[in-house]
Amino acid sequence: MDKFEHEYGADQIQVLEGLEAVRKRPGMYIGSVSVRGLHHLVYEIVDNSVDEALAGYCTHIKVTIEPGNIICVEDDGRGIPVGKHAKTGISAAETVYTVLHAGGKFGGDSGYKVSGGLHGVGASVVNALSNWVEVTIQRDGGIYQMKFERGKTTMPLQKIGDSNKTGTKVRFLADDTIFETLEYQYEVLENRFREMAFLTKGLKISIEDLREETPKSAVFHFEGGLTSFVEFLNKNKEKINTTPIYIEKQGEFPLEIAIQYTTTYNENIYSFVNNINTIEGGTHLEGFKRSLTKVFNDYAKAHGILKEKDGNLQGEDIREGITAVISVKVKEPQFEGQTKTKLGNSEITGIVQSTMNEELAAFLEENPTIAKAILEKCISASRAREAARKARELVRRKNALESSTLPGKLADCSEKDAQKCEVYIVEGDSAGGSAKQGRDRRFQAILPLWGKMLNVEKSRADKIYNNDKLQPVILAVGAGIGNDFDINKIRYGKVIIMADADVDGAHIRTLLLTFFFRYMRPLIENGNVYLAQPPLYKLSKRGFKDVYCYSDDEMTQKLNEMGRDGVNIQRYKGLGEMNPEQLWDTTMNPATRILIKVTMDDAIKADEIFTVLMGDDIAPRRQFIENNAKFVKNLDV
Ligand code: 28F
Fold first, then answer.
1. What is the mean pLDDT of the chain?
2. CB count, 10 Å around CB of 164?
3. DSSP characters over 323-384
4. Where is average pLDDT lowest: 83-97, 593-607, 620-634?
5. Ligand 1 centre and the CA of 109: distance in Å?
6. Which residue has a Cα nearest atom 7 of ligand 1?
7. Which atom of ligand 1 is nearest to the CA of 95?
8. Nearest CA, atom 6, ligand 1
9. To test the ligand 1 pocket, which listed residue (70, 96, 105) has its Cβ within 8 A of the most ligand atoms?
10. Rounded Cα–Cα distance for residues 570 and 547 (Å)
């Protein structure tokens, strides 16, 4: 066995060991084998094209979901080098696809390795976890192709034609013996590619889904980069500064920041490192916040907007209504935190801070109108915070005096274990009355509410505490609101909103959902919030039991079953039309009712939706309720 063969053997063994390790513990490399892990396969391949774009050679990435859940990713970059390695005789392309953690193609200082959510485990992992992978490379005047099955080379790289184009195309079918599902979720992929296009200014990313009769597709191409990102996030909100503040700095740690204030009261700051969404924040976000507070306070003092005696504006006042995106590129990122999405590199704090101190101060000097408009909002925020603090004190003192008073209207249940209890928040006194009579008082509490509640989207915490319609909800749930909210103190395992299926019902449902989203978010994230689903129709016919229908389709289907003639159709306009036992049978009995669990897995999406819902036009609101909440039939079974 001469030296050369011996070396080849060693490499080959290393490759096989690497693939085995990945197939044995895929979760170590892509987080999970759920649909999220499946999507990571796509992100890994697309990230390699994004790296080629960051290096300045790729302008368009095309992602196709082919029938059978085959993924095709194609870029117009230089094409992975096909030359054989002097020593091993294996091409760079084959190395990238077979050696674990190989293809750190831009290590060192020639560029940046953008890496997917799990920090660039690279193409070889995708290879190991796919039934097959086919790589087609165009460069040096030729078309080259190689194929693999479960990571093993079945067709070594070979020239299959001529071409004067360059680029890389990768097609693969994930391994169904490893993944729980091969069904890609188009919206999830579309969301991520939109985000990647925002983060990679000028790069065009297109996605198309050819699995159904009618294909779905989208093209994302933003010359504005993060400026377009904040405009997208704010598209349904009233802006304070129409043109976003934009800061960009190249160098050892390329930094891009966009800021746009709106008239809302919440803080939306998204931070990224190497295109990874650092949901847990980190040193870059720290630097951003410090600089924002310093620069705005300095400007306010220097321009007499704040008197010396006023003291400083707090960070949270300055961040009220802010939408900002920070994106920094770091060669050797240290990720910390629960889900490894917190940046730990300490030098980044200072770098972001000093860049922003300079650039933001300059922007405010050059745009005094914008500076003034933003600061006016910050100052009123600080006054409202002060008022909310006083209101909170007042409520606490009041509560302390009256111990834990429960709202007068609440008909509580006898069960003491919160997880076994549920509270129906019912719109209107008449429905509230029937619900009280119809319920099972052992585990069902009823809280009737009346009339329109305060539109929480347009008010601040102080009004929430004092609002006489939300007060009973806060006290009934019993876990406080905002930063004081403590999920362990909730008094009911289920908070069920029961409102009419009409427009007013949709309005009250939305206002309550917005209230929970803004001030009791863990209640939604923890899956405690539900929507009751009252019937839309009652079909009655001599000789038949009454039949309740919860949708138009169901009604048509039931009508066919019962035979159309002699059937009386009653259309329910509101809960008040049902007597207690009907209300119990159709909407409250765990054995027969339908509950919609309100779930929320994407802050950006949820925030946008609630802003739409708070708009003036009620139609999108209604549309949202029917389309977006997930139906959970006979939840308790
Ligand atoms: C659809 C997936 O993977 N695109 C890629 C390149 C381009 C180069 C490269 C990739 C150099 C030696 C490691 C070309 N010419 N799309 C992709 N495009 N990798 S992956 O180089 C690989 C490294 O081995 C490339 C000059 N430099 C780099």
1. 86
2. 7
3. EEEEEE--SSPPEESTTS-EE--THHHHHHHHHHHHHHHHHHHH-HHHHHHHHHHHHHHHHH
4. 620-634
5. 16
6. 80
7. 24
8. 80
9. 105
10. 10
Kindly report the CATH number that applies to the domain delimited by 226-385: 3.30.230.10
Which of the listed residues 49, 52, 138 should we mutate to test ligand 1's pocket, taking the one with most ligand atoms within 8 A of CB?
52
For residue range 429-463, list pLDDT tens digits in order.
Answer: 778 889 999 999 999 999 998 655 555 555 555 55
- DSSP 8-state code for residue 406: P
In the three-class reduction of DSSP (H, G, I as helix; E, B as strand; rest coil), residue 423 is classed as strand
Q: Where in the chain are the domains?
A: 10-221, 226-385, 406-534+580-607, 537-571
List ligand 1's pocket residues with C-beta within 6 A: 45, 48-49, 52, 73-75, 77-78, 80-81, 92, 96, 103, 105, 168, 170
Active site residues: 427, 500, 502, 504
Distance of alpha carbon 113 from alpha carbon 289, whole angstroms: 27
Assess contact for 114 and 51: CB atoms under 8 A: yes
* 93 Cα: distance to centroid of ligand 1 (angstroms): 8
What would be the CATH architecture of the domain defined by 406-534+580-607?
Answer: 3-Layer(aba) Sandwich (3.40)
55 by Cβ neighbours in 10 Å (0-12 / 13-18 / 19+) ranks as middle
The CATH number of 10-221 is 3.30.565.10
pLDDT in tens, 311-357: 889 999 999 999 999 999 998 899 998 778 899 999 999 999 999 99
Nearest CA to ligand 1 atom 25: 80
Q: Residue 112 Cα, ligand 1 centroid: separation in angstroms?
A: 13
- Ligand 1 centroid, distance to 146 Cα (angstroms): 15
CB-CB neighbours of 86 under 10 Å: 6
Residue 603: the pLDDT is: 44
User: For 194-198, 355-359, 577-581, which range has the lowest pLDDT when averaged over its residues?
Assistant: 577-581
- Judge contact between 198 and 225, C-beta under 8 A: yes
Q: Which of 3-12, 164-173, 198-207 has the lowest mean pLDDT?
A: 3-12
Atom of ligand 1 at shortest range from CA of 52:
18
395 closest CA partner among 447, 453, 461: 461
**3-class state of residue 213 by DSSP:** coil
Copy the structure tokens of residue 139: 């460069």
Q: Does residue 618 have a pLDDT over 70?
A: no
How far is ligand 1, taken at its centre, from the CA of residue 592, in Å? 58
